[in-house]
Design goal:
signal; 301 residues; disordered N terminus; 22% strand; six-stranded mixed β-sheet; alpha/beta
Length: 301
Amino acid sequence: MLKKTLLAAVALMTLAGSAAAEELKEFRIGILGGENEADRLRNFQCMTEKLPSVLGVEKVSLFPAADYDGVIQGLLGGTLDYAELGASGYAKIYLAKADAVEPILTTVQTDGSMGYYSIMVARKDSGITKLEDLKGKKLGFADPDSTSGFLVPSVTLPESIGAPVKEYFSETGFGGGHENLVLEVLKGTFDAGTTWGSGVGEFKDGYSSGNLRKMVDKGILNMDELNEIWKSPLIPNGPIVVRSTMNDDMKTKFKRFMMDLPKSDPACFSSIQGGDFTGYTEVNVDFYKPIIDARKATIGG
C-alpha cells in the first residue's frame, strides 16, 4: 500500500513538473474583441518579438477573441496567460472564480488620473445634442461585458434621464464591440451609442486615448461627424491581469517588463494601449471592488 502511495506521489510530481516545463514554452496573450482582428494583431506584434527573450519562452502567441467573453473564458479556463481587461470584464472573472487571475497593473492617463469615461455619441447631422433628444430613440451599447460600453451606463444613466433605460429608449442593442458600435451609430443603426475615452484633451481629437482616438488615428472616423451627448462619472482604468497559477518568476519578469515598456519602447507601449498614457501603476483587487459590487448588483456575474 505504501509503495503504491509513493508511486502515485512520484507520478503526480512528474506531471506537475511537466506542466511547469510546458508552461515556460509558450506565453499566451488574449486580446479583447471590438476592433478588427488585423489591427489587433498588428498592435500586439511587438510583444511577440520582445517577450520570448524576457520570459525565457520559445514563443509568444496572440489570441484575438471575437468578443470580450472569449478572453474572459480563456482566462477562467487557464488557456491564456495575460490580457488587458476592462474593469467589468475583470469583475466577471472575479465573481466566477476569484483566484483565476491577478490584477497587477493599470494605465495612468496623461493628466495623472487612473480612470476614463463612458462617452455617448450621436451623429452630428441627427440634430441630437442632449439626452432629452434621445427619448424614444434607439441606444446602442458596445458589449455586454464592457465597463464603459454597458455596465456603467446601465448603472448611471437612469439618474441622468430620470427613468429606467428600457423605459426611456425605444430599443437597446449591442454593436459588437466599441469600434463597430461607433460605425453602427454612423450608419444609423442606433441613434446614439456608448463607447470610451480618456476625457483628457479635446473631444474633437477623440481625446488623448480611447476607442474614438484609435479610430481617428486609423483614419476611419472623422470627429466632425459626431456629437458628445453624455459622459459618465470616472471609471477605474481596466487591469492588466496574469494567470494566478503562473510561476512567480515569470510573473515578476513580466511585470517588470511592462512597467519599463513606456521608456524602453514607447512605440510598442503606445501601440498596445491605443493612445497617450504616461505609463503603468500597480493595482490589486481592492481597486476594482466598486465595479465588482456594481456588476454583482446589476448583472449578477
